[in-house]
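Pilot study result, target chain (400 residues):
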Amino acid sequence: MSEQVDYDPCTVALHPIHDASHHHVADRLVYRHDNAAKLEDIMAATARALTSAIYELGDGGLLGDRSLFVDLPLEWLDRPELLPTPAPRLALGIADARTVDPTLLTRLDDIRERGYRIIAPSRLVKQDLDAMLGRVDIILLGSPDDFDDASLERLPARNIKLLVENIANREALTNYQGLGCDYYHGHYLAKPSFITSPPRGRHGNRAAQLRLIRALYEDDSDLHRLHELVVQLPHLHVAILRRANSTYFNRVGKEVDLHRAVQILGLLELRRLILTLTLASLQPSSRIILRMALIRAFMCRNLAAPFSSLDPEDAFTTGLFSLMDALLEEDRNTLLEHLPLSQAIMRALKHRAGPLGAVLTLCESHERQIEEAIDEVPADQLHSCYMAALASTKTLMTDL
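Predicted structure:
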């Protein structure tokens, strides 16, 4: 049985970062969590922030041509499978670190080997200048007097950049420009933008989540099995489609379906995405609506199977996404506007147009017929497709 919990809204701020030529080159992700909170609460807050800023926005939001600067708790850095991607566009901050020790240096070495840039506050860098200069890419200044001239002269040779925050006026900007800083942000330059996920009931098929995570770590992970599990988690289904259809992963530009999306992302990226979304508790699903959506999806696939001009997978996606707004508790038009679906599927969903629209309309008509006269539905080929869809849905949901 699925659980239902009312989650508070998740709000994150994106502070524009400008270079020395006043170009908007990056965004700094800011979110709040109580340092005294339990570890699982800190991890959940981090996951929700990353989910909102990276996995949900994709190319249309944060990861266009700009980079993302984000502070992560040290506990998150201990789990490399959770590090967000793509690494070349991300700079990870370690503001929580208090002491330079062998454990921290090992963490930094591992993160940089994975292709990430490191942001470290000046107070931490000064604790062990020689060790830290070989392991950081960006130094966050606290004041113009943080480093003496001799230390500043060592930075260009190592390609280390200087970041200054909270620029409040022209005088502060001029002072830091005199130091040769590379990155600037503050209200004087530009105001932050905010991303808020609305408060709503979140439903989670916990059994499916756990089976999906376990399947991701099996030695002989089956992509077909992963596909079946992902179908059970609508929010994850959407996130995977968006991720796989982003310009970073989909260089060809042609829309891909869920089967192909799973192949494109691969196990490592799927693990990262799924674990983050699980921590963020962002897999809403109503078991009743999910059952209706799967029946419709399987029936659309069954109806399309005899026609060589129709792709059964497209028909399945059309049926499933026709109820995705109800599953995700989101406005239908807004949801469709941000989904990377093919034009044929979009026309079917919006206007019931084209061959896929005809299949969906036929399926919906049969559903109404069943609702109005359960005992009088003729045992024709159409109903056979429906009964087969019922069996497929029962097998899938029981197995999960």
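One observation from the pilot: DSSP finds 18 helices and eleven strands in the chain. A full batch analysis is planned for the follow-on phase.
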